[in-house]
Amino acid sequence: MNVLLDVQDLKKYYTVTSGTIFKKQTHTIRAVDGVSLSLRENETLGLVGESGCGKSTTGNLLIRLIEPTDGTITYRGTTISKLTDTQLIPYRKKIQMIFQDPYASLDPMMSLGEIVAEPWEIHGEYSVQERRKEADHLLSLVGLEGDYAKRYPHELSGGQRQRVAIARALALHPELIIADEPTSALDVSVKAQIINLLRNLRDELGLAMIFISHDLGVIRYVSDRLIVMYLGKVMESGPTKNLFNAPQHPYTRALLDAIPSPDPTKRRPHSLLKGEVQSQDNLLGICPFFPRCPCRGPLCETVNPPLVEVEPGHQVACLYPTVKEAYSC
Amino acid sequence: MAILLQTKDLRVTFQGKEGPALAVRGIDLELHEGESLGIVGESGSGKSVTSLAMMGLLPSPPALIQAENLQFLNMDLLTANRKTMQGLRGKGMAMIFQEPMTSLDPAFTVGNQLAEPIMIHLGLSRKEANELSLDLLSKVEIPNGKSLLNYYPHQLSGGMRQRIMIAMAISCGPQLLIADEPTTALDVTIQAQVLDLIVALQKEKNMALIMITHDMGVIAQTSDKVAVMYGGLIMEYAEVVELFKNPLHPYTEALLASIPRPDLDSDKRLFSIPGGAPNPKDPPTGCPFHPRCPKADAYCHVELPKMKEITVGHGVRCWRVL
Q: Is residue A317 within 8 Å of A307, Cβ to Cβ?
């Protein structure tokens, strides 16, 4: 299958100034630090990691909602990371986004019909009459049948709002959807509805998808391949099944171990991962996961481990990758 | 073991301009000393309101709290005055809330906020309270507690703030700890640590625990007994292993089936419950779950099913379970 999106060495650095004018200090936060990925047509890629690992920043960089510090983004052979805003417009139609909080991402002053039709207005598609008809069609596609076009966001539940956000993302017939935590704000039973809807639409419309989430349980149901990020870097990437069945990086294993198992007979003795995500300050040139790693070795403090292929399509950035049981590193 | 908390037919109604909202529609609970109860349900099921009513934290009006019996040890919480309730909160029962950013005061240091309940409830001096605070911080596994006492909440991570909340909650040695979605705002790795901590403290201090959550996984990891709530009612209750092995209510079955589990086959579609939660201002007639229930028949629309104990300690509110 054709490669849709190819990203090489993507970086986003923020400079933060602190202190008074006399003792001014600048300080670089490497939010995304050399992420490379590629996505084929009809493929779903999951981006997973804790808060602050740079997964949402990566998503925003891919559609250039924020400008990358360095790196190239290539879409179907065109390098879109260097295009001007006007040149970018056709690609914005091809890549659409769904955000986490459907309470914040829908304009409360617009009816659902207007929300869904706005992309057509901006890109000058369809006549006014056609837009009404198409908006109804689109809303029924996401399971909102009836007179929903006339309603307003406040009349809807969280799950229904997220359906509207999905309909809006589909309006311009995109090829790639970037979904940033689309189910995190939803209740359990509604979460399952939205995951199934996304899966069905993806299969019916032949979409590629980048699914960003901190919930490994959810991500497993939608992604073909997975990228595990930590402090702006890729720790492990590979087919979802391999990562779940035989995780190689200690961080991937810790993430899997942390999911509370819905089986009261299998209680976790204690959590594998101690401590919290740290500041990157003292981590230049060493493995970013070193301070929290339960399996660290003597060399981890001397080099930043590169991504190494351990089997075809499965890469790990760890000097001591293992497939052993979680507690015996 | 002695009964710590008992509610019989607890009802909470909010009086609004558009008419009353029936948030809790009759809850019977019994919690023994040192026992851990999980209350599971979706948003709007009434699980938080139930716990706030027990704590006496619902402003009245608009809340109207009615019950046949609402008792903590031998104290009647329905008739207790403000002063008695104040004495009870902190010492008798304490609560941890979901969002540690909003439940800590941004204008006071951590040390200040930790010392306040200790000084009020235990009557210690500032100096003694500070010493106890340091002790508490090491209990919740915060290293270098001393420097942390001078920090403000915004300088701390979500996990740290939740640990401080836990330290505050256990500071006066409560017999009951109510944790209302304590890990929902946290990362999965931090969630694991905070849950470990709560369970360890509960065992060590022999506290009773009410864990309120929408996550069946959290229930499975922390609770002895479970109550499943929907539409302001308990639909099913049982011992935790029994409930997961042998769920009787269609809602419980559906909840368990819709968990995206990491250990099951991901090629299959996830089970999902159609529709959304009922409106407390206009609850459906009969069983509140009937509009979404795959097994509902005509009678489910008519009359609200009664709680029936099927086996000892396992009760269900459903017409279809005989």
A: yes
Three-state DSSP class for residue A73: strand
How confident is the model at residue B317, as a pLDDT?
A: 94
Cross-chain residue pair B220–A262, CB shorter than 8 Å: yes
- Residue B189 inside a domain? The answer is yes
Which of A58, A103, A113 is closest to A81 using CA atoms? Answer: A58
pTM for the full predicted model: 0.86
> What is the dotted CATH code of the domain comprising A3-263+272-316?
3.40.50.300
Residue-level length of chain A: 329
Cα separation, A260 vs B215, whole angstroms: 9
Distance CA(A115)–CA(A147), nearest Å, equals 14
Kindly determine whether residue A270 and residue B196, on different chains, have CB atoms separated by under 8 Å: yes
CA distance B126 to chain A (A): 30
Looking only at the bridges linking them, the beta strands covering A70-75 and A78-79 are antiparallel
Chain B residues whose CB is inside 8 A of the A218 CB are 260
Question: pLDDT tens digits, residue range B150-189?
Answer: 999 888 888 888 889 999 999 988 999 999 988 887 888 8
Question: Do β-strands A44-48 and A208-213 pair in parallel, antiparallel, or remain unpaired?
Answer: parallel
pLDDT band at A326 (very low <50, low <70, confident <90, very high): very low
Q: What is the pLDDT of residues A135-154, one digit of tens each?
A: 999 999 998 888 889 999 99
Tally the domains of chain B: 1
Q: Which residues of B touch A51 (CB under 8 A)?
A: 158, 187
CATH number of the domain residue B224 falls in: 3.40.50.300
Residues of B within 8 A of A221 (CB-CB) are 260, 266, 270
Domain presence at residue B278: yes
What value of ipTM does the predicted structure carry? 0.81
Helix ranges (H only) for chain B are 47-55, 82-91, 100-103, 110-122, 126-139, 145-148, 158-170, 188-205, 216-222, 240-245, 250-257, 298-302
Is residue B260 packed enough to be buried (19+ CB in 10 Å), middle (13-18) or exposed (0-12)?
buried
Domain span at residue B264? Answer: 3-92+172-316
Could you tell me if residue B110 is left (phi over 0), alpha (psi between -120 and 50 degrees) or otherwise beta? alpha
Q: How close is the nearest chain A Cα to the Cα of B132, in Å?
A: 24
Determine whether A124 is exposed, middle or buried from the number of CB atoms within 10 Å of its CB (0-12, 13-18, 19+). exposed
> Do the domain assignments include residue B64?
yes
**Cβ contact, residue pair B256, A196, below 8 Å:** no
Q: How far is CA A219 from the centre of its chain?
A: 10
Shortest Cα distance, chain A CAs vs residue B104, angstroms: 20
Beta bridge partners of A39: A5
Nearest to A187 among B43, B196, B254 (CB): B43
In a domain, B289, yes or no: yes
The domain segmentation of chain A, as residue ranges, is 3-263+272-316
CB contact under 8 A, B244 and A263: yes
Per CB-CB distance under 8 Å, the chain B contacts of A220 are: 260, 262, 266
